[in-house]
Specification:
Radius of gyration: 18 Å
Largest sheet: 7 strands, mixed
Number of domains: 1
Bound molecules: S-adenosylmethionine
Structural class: alpha/beta
CATH class: Alpha Beta
Strand content: 15-25%
Number of helices: 11
CATH architecture: 3-Layer(aba) Sandwich
Length: about 280
Amino acid sequence: MTGGAMGAVGAGGPPHPAAAAFDGMAERYDRLFTHSVIGRAQREAVRSLAAAVFALGDHVLELNCGTGEDALFLSRLGIAVTACDASAGMIREAEGRRRLEAPQAAIEFRVLATENLAELRAPFMFDGVLSNFAGLNCVTDLAPVARQLSLCVRPGAPILLCVFTRVCLWEILWFLSQGQLRKAFRRFPGRSTVAFGEVALTVRYPTVRRLRRLFSPAFALRSITGVGVAVPPSYLEPWARRHPKVLRSLLRLDRIVRHWPGFRVLGDHVLLRLEPARP
Ligand SMILES: C[S@@+](CC[C@H](N)C(=O)[O-])C[C@H]1O[C@@H](n2cnc3c(N)ncnc32)[C@H](O)[C@@H]1O
């Protein structure tokens, strides 16, 4: 399997905004998020559903795969993965991890922006799709992505999309307690500008209703799971490390409230399970 280097940068054009943003943090990403206590706690929710819906022998398309944490996880379950990301830096890290952790893993890492999925030209239909931790929040228009996905998945394929929510209860309460009103409600307008060093990236916060509409009629929404409802957002890592027992209790609570209507859309992320709609 090879790591391609096409698609994220147009020939001679400017770099993809996400690539410019994430290249600069690729080397630190695993330390800052993947191996953080909060990152691990939030990922557990996505993994338990992924392990339940994808099966041994499946071939899954992963969007915005970052440093390959989920691709490596899926490959350990006997699932082949085509894993794409706009950031060449992230894909370099992912390739490095694969070489060290699972050299035989059936994973193809590719530098490919989600907006350029048509370039995949896969000669096969994927058995499922995974997009974890807000890569889709960096995409301006998700409707063409939905159309493109509908062309490359088999009937019944589970599509798992984990995105930032519009309303995060933890974020509101935390920043209000710090007297930072603007940060507390920064998701409410539906978009915000996030600084990655010198690079400013627009992050969008579509509601579940909006996402459902964007992915229909090609896909039907099958389930909604909260991710990071009781567990706080990752910028509270220093706090979480000081309070390991509290975090463990919050994770136990999370496993319950992540399924509660009302609560499940108030976390840091929400995980949608969609399926191609039957004709
Ligand atoms: C927060 S990281 C999540 C990475 C990984 N999915 C994980 O679970 O750790 C977001 C990732 O989305 C990627 N990304 C953002 N916008 C993208 C786009 N338009 N196309 C492809 N990848 C994108 C970034 O490069 C980054 O690797």
